């Protein structure tokens, strides 16, 4: 493979900078539905992507035919595109340099998930399904397991030579209950496909699917029977860890992608209210709010050795004691906030996509105490967790979220369950109202494997973590 990549570099000698990246992605997905095997899909895709930079303008081309002639053609196209872009722009744009790197990164895996027999994976999901099916009020049952192995080899004109092998493992299941004309559902360990981490088969065993299946079935029925809020109110809101990470993803991660903030990215999911002139000044949230982007976090979906521009993995402060102090950046954007080096957040979803600014592991540092400590001081409020739906405007300011799980808080305890609860907010006002944050023992790492961005679209794996937190005077209502 090295030979093909170095042939590509040889063809990019006229460029100010050049790189070539081989990517092979092996995927396996197993799904069951109502006691039947719905699908077992396996796929392998591979190819080489080539980038050339001329005067800061970028040209990109790719091929899925790993042959010398095809690699040469892709390299020539990338160089021609970069030259044409530079000519059309008529001026030089910044593109930051990076020291030479050489090395290898591999996910720490206990058991390679691709060595586990498919029959064993199907059997696990079928056993879960049997437990969920014990009550006829459960009218739909779904379960899935997902595995990926990503192999990369990267070279560039700065002399870097990098190899990476990344495993991603995850899954989950959902029970849908129908009671007196009302449909509700509960998922384990979370909605949207479950939880996913950089790990092997051992992570599936750690999640212990069978242990929680009875509880999930009964809770699905319970929430189908639950009342809705009779009217919208302003109240104390406590969020569990899964809903916290969706809140972070949508109202912190995306708006702090630097390409959005400077207008490079706008057509897919909008721009950002967090303008770069507010760096170091904007009060994003309360002093309890400390958020980092960390590509070195063990097991995080956004963890790697080097990004797809050959920049070494880093931990970068984004928000410190509620103040905006940093952004997610790449080699063609970091200059905008005065950096002389990229933050290492340029990632591509495959060989045929160009790297762009993406979240790595964006997480909220823990506070102190426990969820019970937080609840004990609340006379009246609402607890919500496990995201069901979300909506946020094009500048990442006005949002609304609903969750699978909701309870009324009364006199320091979780009381009656609630159905179809939704909360609303404006990003800096909402984060500014955070007054309590649980400690490290309650902090949990989650993986979101399908974050969309770009045109043509790219689906990226991101990691997030948080502890439960409490917010004052939040608008809470019902969707039905």
The termini sit apart by 57 Å
Would you tell me the structural class of the helices and strands? alpha+beta
Q: How would a textbook summarize the main sheet?
A: 8 strands, mixed
Average of pLDDT: 97
Count of runs of 4 or more consecutive helical residues: 9
Strand content: 35-45%
* Gyration radius, in Å: 24 Å
Low-confidence stretches: none
Task: Note the quaternary state here.
Answer: single chain
Shape call: globular
Number of domains: 2
Helix content: 10-25%
Number of strands: 23
Protein topology:
Layout lengths: L1 H9 L6 E17 L2 E19 L2 E7 L4 H22 L12 E5 L11 H15 L5 E19 L4 E19 L2 E7 L6 E3 L4 H6 L1 H17 L7 E7 L1 H13 L4 H4 L29 E4 L20 E6 L2 E2 L21 E2 L8 E2 L3 E4 L6 H6 L3 E13 L5 E13 L2 E5 L3 E6 H6 L1 E4 L6 E10 L4 E9 L2 E10 L2
Parallel strand pairs: 4-6, 9-16, 15-22
Antiparallel strand pairs: 1-2, 1-5, 2-3, 5-6, 6-7, 6-8, 9-23, 10-11, 10-15, 11-12, 13-14, 16-17, 17-18, 17-19, 19-23, 20-23, 21-22
In short:
By secondary structure, the protein is an alpha+beta fold.
Written account of the structure:
Helix 1 packs parallel to helix 2. The model has no long low-confidence stretch (mean pLDDT 97). The chain has 480 residues and is of the alpha+beta class. Helices cover 20% and strands 40% of the residues. The chain has nine helices and 23 strands. The N and C termini lie far apart (57 Å). The protein folds into two domains: 224 residues, PmbA/TldD fold (2-Layer Sandwich), CATH 3.30.2290.10; 246 residues, no CATH class.
């Amino acid at each position: 493979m090295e030979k093909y990549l170095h042939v590509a570099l040889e063809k990019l000698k006229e460029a100010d900078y050049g790189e070539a990246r081989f990517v092979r992605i092996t995927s396996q997905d197993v799904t069951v539905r109502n006691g039947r095997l719905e699908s077992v899909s396996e796929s392998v895709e591979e190819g080489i992507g080539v980038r050339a930079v001329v005067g800061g303008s970028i040209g990109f081309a790719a091929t899925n035919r790993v042959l010398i002639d095809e690699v040469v053609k892709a390299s020539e196209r990338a160089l021609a595109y970069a030259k044409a872009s530079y000519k059309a722009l008529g001026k030089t744009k910044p593109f930051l340099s990076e020291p030479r790197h050489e090395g290898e990164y591999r996910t720490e895996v206990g058991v390679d998930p691709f060595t586990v027999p498919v029959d064993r994976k199907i059997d696990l999901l079928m056993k879960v399904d049997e437990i969920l099916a014990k009550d006829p009020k459960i009218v739909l049952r779904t379960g899935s397991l997902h595995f990926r192995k990503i192999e990369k080899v990267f070279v560039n004109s700065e002399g870097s030579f990098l190899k990476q092998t990344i495993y991603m493992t995850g899954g989950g299941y959902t029970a849908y209950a129908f009671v007196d004309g009302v449909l509700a559902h509960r998922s384990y360990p979370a909605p949207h496909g479950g939880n996913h981490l950089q790990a092997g088969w051992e992570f599936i065993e750690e999640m212990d699917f069978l242990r929680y299946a009875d509880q999930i079935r009964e809770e699905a029925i319970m929430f189908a029977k639950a009342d809705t809020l009779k009217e919208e109110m302003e109240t104390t809101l406590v969020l569990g860890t899964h809903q916290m990470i969706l809140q972070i993803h949508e109202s912190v991660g995306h708006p702090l992608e630097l390409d959005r903030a400077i207008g490079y990215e706008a057509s897919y999911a909008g721009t950002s209210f967090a303008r770069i002139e507010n760096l170091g000044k904007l009060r994003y949230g309360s002093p309890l709010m400390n958020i980092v982007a960390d590509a070195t976090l063990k097991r995080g979906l956004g963890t790697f050795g080097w990004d797809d521009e050959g920049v070494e993995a880093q931990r970068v402060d984004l928000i410190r004691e509620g103040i905006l102090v940093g952004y997610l950046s790449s080699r063609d954007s970091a200059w905008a906030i005065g950096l002389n080096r990229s933050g290492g957040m340029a990632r591509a979803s495959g060989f045929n996509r160009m790297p762009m600014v993406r979240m790595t592991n964006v997480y909220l540092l823990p506070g102190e105490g426990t969820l019970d400590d937080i609840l004990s001081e609340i006379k009246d409020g609402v607890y919500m967790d496990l995201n069901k739906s979300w909506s946020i405007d094009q500048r990442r300011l006005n949002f609304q979220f609903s969750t699978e799980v909701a309870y009324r808080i009364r006199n320091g305890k979780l009381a009656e369950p609630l159905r179809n609860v939704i909360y609303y907010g404006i990003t800096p006002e909402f984060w500014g109202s955070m007054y309590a944050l649980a400690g490290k023992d309650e902090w949990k790492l989650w993986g979101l494997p399908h974050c969309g961005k770009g045109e043509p679209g790219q689906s990226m794996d991101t990691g997030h973590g948080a502890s439960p937190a409490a917010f004052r005077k939040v608008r809470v209502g019902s969707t039905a």
